[in-house]
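Subject: two folds for Thursday's group meeting

Dear M.,

Sorry for the delay on this. The cluster queue was jammed most of the week, so I only got both jobs back this morning. I'm pasting them in the order they finished. Each block is the input sequence followed by the predicted structure tokens. Could you check whether the formatting survives your parser before we put anything on slides? The first protein is the one we discussed after the seminar.
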Amino acid sequence: MAPTSASGDQPSDKDNWDNGRLASKQQLLTEIVLRNKLTTLVFDGDTRCRVLEQVLLRSYGVQTQGVDNSRDAIALIAFGAKFNLIIIKKILPIMNGLEADSLNGSGCKILGVTACSGESERQAFLAIGVDVFIEKPLDPEHLVPILRELDGE
């Protein structure tokens, strides 16, 4: 039985707690159909985060490759690996994300993801050529528009 207000006509405010945001996110999850094959390089020193991001991308049909540091990412690109999107973190083992400025000439969109959302953090990412900067977590609300743009929608 559907909840109703005291008058019996409409749901109460407490039944509409998210103001439609959940329905909007569900629509984002179900409406994306990519026309082109997209590939993404995800580098994150935290294996769990890297795997979760790869699973999210794969759920949209995006092929992914993951590495845990910037040195390996730079080596992949130097050896000719091509990506539509690179997802980079600031804090990584061996060589941090801000030292990966050689990715700038890779010819793909670079997405900087970090737990810190300060202006200095944003400026540091933009200085190395990051196209888009978002605060963790990487979620469909931020990812889907980028995938649609890369897909030419």
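Second protein, same layout:
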Amino acid sequence: MSLARLIYLSDSNEVITWKLVKDILSVAQENNKLQNITGILLSQGLHFLQVLEGEELDIQELYTHIKNDRRHGNLQLLSCESIDQRQFGEWSMKGVEFIDFDKDKQKKILDKYCQGGEDFYLPEDPQQCIQLINDFGLTRST
């Protein structure tokens, strides 16, 4: 058995509200506890960024299930790689919205992750995704 981290982006088929995120989280948290899967779900605009950690076969099975979820589309698998330790071991699934952060943190993130003065974007590079999560101060190693 090998521990793995999978990172993907997707587009929501509906406006992402905190209610939608809470609905996703309530199911994910229970199911993930049973499979010993941890991770984080970020939402911005109509986009999701999710990081999943766990046994590689469990992660692949979950990702197949996620691909069939009609609430979103245009999934982009950014990476799936073996890891030595989890970064999100404390959370069966943590949900985060950009607007949850104070104005100073939002400004720092916007300064770093805005393209040409446009809206904040979720990066497509796996290392930048992890860096974004680190910039938010969300990383928890176990």
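Two things I noticed about the second structure. The domain at 3-135 is CATH 3.30.70.100 (Alpha-Beta Plaits). Residues 14 and 37 are 26 Å apart (CA to CA).

Cheers,
T.
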